[in-house]
Every structure is written in C-alpha cells, then in structure tokens.
Design brief:
The complex is a heterodimer of chains A (311) and B (193).
Chain A: H1 7-25, H2 32-52, H3 60-63, H4 67-89, H5 98-105, H6 124-132, H7 175-192, H8 196-199, H9 206-218, H10 220-230, H11 233-241, H12 256-263, H13 266-274, H14 289-295, H15 299-307
Helix pairs in contact in A: 7-9, 9-10, 10-11, 10-12, 11-13, 12-13, 12-14, 13-15, 14-15
Chain B: H1 11-19, H2 24-45, H3 48-65, H4 75-94, H5 108-116, H6 123-127, H7 131-140, H8 144-156, H9 160-167, H10 171-188
Helix pairs in contact in B: 1-2, 2-3, 2-4, 2-8, 3-4, 8-10, 9-10
The chains are: A mainly alpha (311), B mainly alpha (193).
Chain lengths: 311, 193
C-alpha cells in the first residue's frame, strides 16, 4: 500500500497532469518535411552500411539441418587436434644471431611482439567511416579508439629480414625504413587528428625521432592534443610550458581538454585548465567537456571542470 | 520461431539493428520519440521553425552516430543529450532570445501581467486563455535551467539522476531546479491545475 501524498506532492502531480493534458491538446507538431528528410537520410545511411558491412549471418553450409552438426563437429575435432599440437609448436625456435637481433629489435623495445608500428593508419574503408562519422555525437568518446591496422610492409625496404623461422621481433623493419615510414605517416596523421604522436613508438630510431620532432615543431598544437588524449602528462606540461595554445581543435572540433576528459586523464585535464583551456569548448557535435566527463563516468573530472566554470 | 516486431523491441535493440544497416528500426525509433523531442526543443527555444531545424539535426546526428552508440545508458538519454547539446550550440551561435511574438499567439498581455504584478499572480491575465497557451506561456517565464529540467522530466520521462547526468549538474542542483520550476508553474497556472 502506497503512502499518502503530501499536499505539495499532490500539487506537483496535478501540475504534471495539467502539462500532459495541455501537451495532448496541443495540435502543433514538427513539420512533415523534417520527417521525410530525416527518414530519407537515415535510409541512405542504412543502405550504405548494409552494402559495406552486411549483418553477420550463419553460413549456408551450417544452416542445413544435418550439415551443421557435421561441420561443427569437424571444426571441434580440428580445434582439439590443434590444441594437442600447439605445445610443440610453442617450443622456442633457436635464437637468431645476436648481431641480427640487435639490428632488428632496437627500434621497438616496448612494443609487443609482432606489432611493429610502421603504418597505424586505418584501412581505407575504416577511414571513410571515420570521415562519415565526423559529425556524429561523441558521447562514446570514452570508448577505446579502434585498433589501428598494422602493416609490416610499409615499403619494400620494410619487408621481413628473412623468410621462414624468424623471431617475431625480427619482423620489424630496419630502423631507417621504419623511421621514414613513421615520419611520413606522422605528418599526415598530425594534420588530421594529432593522434599519431601517441601511437608512435617511443623510440623508432634517431632519424624517426628527429623527423617527429620536426613535425611536432611544425604543429605543436596537434602534438598537445595527441599527448592530452594519451595521458602523457609530461609531454603536455612540456608543451604548455613552451606556450603551446590550448584552443586548437582537431577535425572534429575536439580540443586537447575535451580529448583528455573523454580519455579520463584527470591530471592532464587539471594541467590544461590551469593553463587556461576553455572548459566549455564543445566539439562540432556540441559535446562539452562536462558532458564528456559524465559520459565517461568521471564525476571527479566533472567537478574539476565545474570549478573552472564549465557549464 | 517467433519474430519480434519492431514495436516490441527495446530502443537499444532497434538502434543496434539500424547500425547494422536495417532502415526500419530507425523509423520505429523516430515514431516513438519524434513528438517528445520536438516538444522538448520547441518549448525550450519557444520557436517552431528553430525546433524543426534542431529536430532534423538531432536525428541526422542519431543516424550518423548509430554505429558509435554504446548502450551504457538508455537510448532516450543519449537522444535527449544530443538534442540538448544541439540546442545549446544553436543558442550560442544565434544568441537566441526567445520572443513570445514568435510563438504564434498573442502573449504580450500575459507577459505584461506577469512582469507588472508577479506577486498577485497571472491568473487574471490567463483566465481568458486556453490551457495550452497558458502552459506554454508559463513555461517561457521559467529560467532556462529550470525549464530545461522540467521539460526533460515531463517529455523525456527522466529521473532526477538522469536529468543531472544529461545536464551535467549535480543531483541537488537538479532537484532544486525542478522544485523551483514546479513552484513557479503552480503559481502561474493555479487556475488550471
């Protein structure tokens, strides 16, 4: 049994009822032209998505009543056989010569095996999607950035040193090739998103560092955004100390502050705010740092922003 | 096997299907929310043409952003957050100053009455008017933040916590805004409630 309402609650309920009654009686409505435009636009996008990325469906082979179990059984058997053979395959191959390891492993000391960061650009299809979503609402800013597609064949020079039984690290390109490829890509990425700096290996060789430094010097604001997004507090403070402005935006209108907020880097956010970053600088979709903080589930950052005047 | 109809599906399931390339789920979502979002916008900005423009932008953004939607919150929360952000953007861009003349009805006497003698209440000025106009006029008398919170609750069916999240305000602030909004509206609409 519900408790009796207080007079104020009763008055509120009557007010709400009045509002709803008036809304029902109100004949005003959005224009039909808007409805048609929206539905046509949505249908076009749906058709594009359906064409480029059809919903996953069970292969025809597995949909048959008797073939399905048979095929699945075969796959399971193959998987079990694979598990039995796997331990033998995992036995380490004889180590390559010390000189060869020293030559190929030096460029990427902290990168996981088999992940040389030569070309981190998205595949053409992914890039087109990103472009199409350039104005999409970014409440999902806090989500992980899509995994970049890694290619080990950025240039003929970057081909694996040897075919056959080579240690995974050995598939990294020679430092000179990596440096050239990285610097060329860095220029493009810095121009667009500023993310390249955070994706670049910490030490891709002296020449790569020199090139990246030149690129950063050419566009320090992009470097600031990249550092802010990746949470590199030292780099952010260094750039801010060098009087790099905080007002610069990327292609989606995102400031360094918004990127740091969305990625949840509270210390970077604090540093940017202390250096005069605009706490209300929204991206092209109107996503404000405060909204991004709430979307990222970071009330501490939201409180910090509020102290600096975020609305 | 029973096929779930669009009408029975959750908002989140519909937007997920749309993101995969089906057009029909979007139409169902649009049908569910078109009027509510439009009323939220129109009563906030006090201008039908601007509300139409905003509505179109909001749904374009929903269509574009569907693949990026992550169901960490409700679809409605996402939708109204977009709507609110668009509205704030447009306000900043155009410096919208709500003009009651733009509402399409004669509201000046109401405003005059409210401005001249708020303590005495607007009853006398509103009595002769129909309920719909009275409610719309009363809403325009609220401070923006109070009106926004009230409309999010009435049109969006959001809880205080959800409104606080959407508006980026604290729970207590949101609660206060709602309380003040209702108190003022009760005062303005005492003849109708």
């Amino acid at each position: 049994m519900s408790e009796p309402r207080t007079p104020e609650q009763e008055a509120d309920a009557q007010l709400d009822a009045l509002y709803r009654r008036s809304a029902e009686r109100d004949v005003s409505a959005p224009s039909a032209a808007v409805r048609e435009a929206v539905r046509a636009h949505a249908a076009r996008l749906a058709a594009k998505r359906a064409g480029g990325r059809a919903p996953w469906r069970l292969p025809q082979l597995l949909r048959s009543s008797w073939r399905g179990p048979a095929v699945l059984g075969t796959l399971v058997a193959a998987a079990i056989a694979g598990l039995m053979v796997l331990p033998r395959a995992l036995v380490s191959p004889p180590p390559p010569a010390v000189s060869e390891l020293a030559r190929v492993a030096a460029p990427a000391p902290q990168r996981p095996a088999g992940a040389p960061a030569v070309d981190v650009r998205p595949a053409p299809a992914e890039r087109a999607e990103e472009k199409a979503a350039a104005h999409a609402p970014q409440l999902g800013l806090a989500r992980q950035a899509p995994q970049p597609k890694v290619s080990t064949a950025a240039s003929p020079e970057a081909a694996p040193a040897a075919e056959g039984n080579v240690h995974p690290y050995a598939q990294a390109p020679p430092p000179a090739a990596a440096a050239r490829a990285a610097s060329a890509d860095a220029v493009k990425e810095l121009e667009v998103t500023g993310r390249r700096m955070s994706a670049a290996p910490p030490a891709a060789g002296r020449s790569a560092n020199a090139d990246l430094a030149n690129v950063a010097a050419a566009d320090p604001a992009a470097r600031l955004r990249g550092a802010a997004e990746s949470g590199d507090l030292a780099a952010v403070q260094s750039l801010l100390g060098a009087r790099v402005g905080t007002e610069s935006r990327d292609a989606k209108g995102r400031s360094a502050l918004l990127l740091a907020v969305a990625a949840g880097h509270a210390e970077v956010v604090a540093s940017l705010l202390q250096h005069g970053a605009d706490p209300n600088a929204a991206d092209t979709d109107g996503l404000t740092p405060l909204a991004a903080a709430h979307a990222a589930g970071r009330p501490d950052i939201a409180a910090l922003l509020t102290r600096y005047g975020a609305r | 096997m029973m096929r779930m109809t669009d009408a029975a599906e959750s908002d989140e399931a519909l937007i997920a299907r749309y993101a995969l390339g089906e057009a029909r789920p979007f139409n169902e979502l649009y049908r569910r929310y078109e009027l509510r979002v439009w009323r939220y916008l129109e009563r906030n900005v006090g201008n039908r043409a601007i509300a139409d423009e905003l509505l179109q932008e909001v749904w374009f953004a929903v269509a574009r952003g569907a693949p990026d939607y992550r169901p960490s919150g409700s679809f409605a929360g996402w939708l109204f957050t977009i709507a609110r952000n668009r509205m704030l953007d447009m306000r900043r861009a155009r410096r919208i100053e709500v003009s009651l003349e733009e509402l399409g009805y004669e509201a000046e006497p109401v405003v005059s009455a409210l401005t001249a003698a708020p303590a005495a209440g607007p009853v006398a000025a509103l009595v002769a008017r129909d309920e719909v106009s009275a409610v719309r006029a009363a809403l325009q008398e609220l401070p923006r933040e109070q009106r926004d919170a009230f409309l999010l609750q009435l049109e969006g069916d959001f809880s205080v916590e959800e409104i606080a999240a959407i508006t980026g305000s604290s729970f207590e602030t949101t609660k206060s805004r709602l309380r003040y909004a209702r108190a003022r509206l009760r005062e303005l609409l005492s003849e109708y409630a």
